[in-house]
Amino acid sequence: MPPSTSQRSSAPSTQPPPPGSASVEVRRTESTVRAGARDIFVTELVAEGGPTRELPMVLLHGGGPGASGMSNYARNVDAFALDGYRVLVPDMPAYGRSTKELDRSDPFGDLAVFLRSLFDALDIDRAHLLGNSLGGAAALRFALDRPDRVASQVLMGPAGIGTTRGLPTRGTGKLFGYYAGEGPSREKLREFITEYLVFDASGVTEEMIEERYQSSIDPEVLAAPPLRRPSGLTAPRTVLRMDFTRDRRIAACTVPTLVVWGVDDKVNKPSGGPWLARHLPHCDLHLYSRTGHWAQFEQPARFNRLVRGWLEGVL
Question: What are the structural domains of the chain?
Answer without folding.
Answer: 5-314 (3.40.50.1820)
